[in-house]
Amino acid sequence: MASSTVMRRVSLRNLRAHKLRLFLTVFSIVLGTSFVAGSIVFTSTISKAFNDIFDSAAPGVAVEITPDSNQSPGVPLTVVDDLTAQKQELGIDKIVANYTGSVTIAGSDGKALQTGGAPSVGTAYLPPDQSLSPDSSKILPGGRGPTNAGEVALNSSAADEAGLQVGSTTQLVVGQGSAQPREVTVVGLLDLPGSTGGYVNVQFDEATARSLFSDGQHVAQVDMSAVDGVTPEELQQRVQAALPPDTYEVRTGDQVRQDQKDQVNEFLTIFTAILLAFAAIGLIVGTFIIYNTFSMIVAQRNRELALLRAVGASRRQVSRSVLFEAFVVGVIGGLVGLAVGIGLAALLKALTTSASGLPDAPLQIGVWAVLAALFVGIVVTMISAWVPAVRASRVPPVEAMRAGMAEGSAPLVRRTVVGAVVGVISLVAIVAGAMGVGVGPAIAVGAGAAGAIAAVVLAGPALSRPVVGALGSVLGAPFGRIGRLARTNAVRNPRRTAATAFALTLGLMLVAVIGTLGTSFKGTVNEAVDSGMTAEFIVAGSNQMPIPGAVADQVEQVDGVAASVSFGIIQATADGQQVAGYGAVGGQPADVAVLDMRDGASDQLPADGMFVSERTSIDKGWQRGDVVTFTGPTGQEVPVTVSGVYADNEALQPWLVGPDVYDQLVPASAQVSAMIFVAPEPGVSAETLRTNLEDATASYLTVQVQDRTQFKSSVSSQIDQMLATLYAMLGLALLIAVLGIINTLALSVVERKREIGMLRAVGMLRAQVRRSIYLESVLIAIFGAILGVLLGTVIGVALVRTLAKWGLGTPVVPWTLIVITLVASAVVGVLAALWPAVRAARTRPLEAIVEA
Questions:
Q1: What are phi and psi of 547, to 5 degrees?
Q2: CB–CB of 328/8 below 8 Å?
Q3: What is the DSSP letter of 245?
Q4: For 324-383, where are the E strands, in sequence order?
Q5: What is the dihedral of CA 17, 20, 26, 30, to 10 degrees?
Q6: What is the per-residue pLDDT across 686-741, written as a single tens digit (0 to 9) for each?
Q7: Could you tell me which of 202, 221, 180, 209 has the C-alpha nearest to residue 119?
Q8: Which of 796, 795, 777 is nearest to 737 (CA)?
């Protein structure tokens, strides 16, 4: 017991005596804990914000009625009338028919207000005496509720974004079938509880809302409140008994709010999983940094630990003293990492709430965040320190004192052989998955990727010697002896070099995987446009909105148009499953796109027929001559004969029906198009046709005219936006890797203090010392980058091939990204070495030799 106490005191004094080393060790732990804690705090905060919003949703609603099927046009108004007549018997206080639909409103600049993906909906304004909850949406002072068709009330956050105020006149388009924008005047601003950035709510008077968002016979949902003494559950049972069975869904207000929470929490679960996946990446990177740090610290203390062994300390006591130090710095690092993680979560919250419209809420620092930070800080640190501790305890005292501060180097043969075997097996799994061999190609690629990472960990030290040696011979040649010294320093401890480089390898591997997927997606789009379309222009909706059906008629009448085909959106049921496709209206698809028929006498789509792509034909089993029975939103069954099968064309996926089928499946009031393909008449220039199309569609807020290049660019920009988010998340892991290199080099400078002092004593200049550290860092960084890029590209190409059945085309290797990555790695190497190099250059020769 006494000896254990003595060893703990020695450990604590050692920590206090080497403050720089303590700081660098704690810093490495903070890198590994902050992202994990920050991810948990951030997702908990966003979850809390959404829960708070939905806690206030459906205010005053005791019971809500909605159609049992999403294909239904709504709840018949006759049902509302019947329930209204039975209010007293059922215990209903107030009953409200909710009319709602998508809208787009123009800002003060005359352009459509962009929502960033948030909903933009129109609803009916209810005066306080008619509303179920008079306080749910207040008109701000200075405004009033709309009373006629030309007036609207707008939520204040959207009004601020649009630059509108009470008295402003603007234009508005109703998303489903409105031919021309409506001119409206903003007469009131709404204070909506839980209104998030980007969300738009335009409220009309009830009569106007009914005409815009209803077919005159149905309503989207019916809300009601209960009289005093009747609970929501009792009212729910009474209303359900008064309605036809299995026709409508009757829920209490609490159930409505919980269902909305569940939908958001499903999204948040995915969102959390993505964040935690990146946190896991940061954790893995941080673990290697911690392991590297403790390996170097133990190596630096070989003499000290050997002296303890010489004066009677046992191997167990030596290893326990190292683990005790790991525990102390793990606690410190975990707590500091928690604090940094909270700051990181606050930064993420500030960025997301301002840029993406996510709701705001106070930071939620829960028990799980604290436990995660301490777990990572303590457990991961002690696990990382265990191998160096055992290694230190096994060094004989005399040998350790004779070896000085050099780290012992165990043979690499065994781990290299195991790594090579694992690498070969992993490569076979990746290739098999890419070729579609086996039950789950994606699973095979994923397992192969995990195995490849393990192989790099095992065989990395052996790989580092020849690769870094070769790089050093090339990059170090212009620097002469300084270059050779840097090369020697980089290869003499392969374990440390590989562990330091692995942090960068993992981050850049993921960058290469995502880059390959993104480039391949864009390549698929480009191929679909270049080889799948003959149309010169694409008329599409802005703000991710569909095009009103009337636009197709306008485009068809434009001078210079030889052919225009509107692809109307169809959502129906077939073979007991929800399916989605397009109705080709206004012309033949073969006039604006490449229709390579594989099974069909003609490429002319019959008005009452159907074409399916090869992929759909295989997946659904729909063959030429088969009859597919669709059930539309009104419940009407429409049998359609498959007239042909065409070669996969991403511009025409997954199936097309003629105009007669489209009219039967989609009510006129709900007919909207995804896009319109337009081909010019012979002799009509592209500039002339574009001008004519833009003039014809100028009054439509939601319509934009794009040529083929612009269309490809717009799709690519959307992909780039998604990739930018992923790259931003990966950037933090790469930052951790860079800081890890700084940490390792700084400790390496401490370890080599005597060596550097001797070099300075024999005439090495400070600039030469700095240059050697720079080159050493660059060699390590490029080694890690090469491994990461090679791994990531192979895995990315394999993943693209596994996604071919979902329409992803030929893999495209992001060569530009690869070149930029390799050059950036060299720059990162220099930047990471700045502080360690300056510290090394300041080493005083005599002090270093004496101190060592």
A1: -100, 130
A2: no
A3: T
A4: none
A5: 160
A6: 888 888 888 888 777 778 888 888 888 877 777 776 677 667 666 766 776 777 77
A7: 202
A8: 777
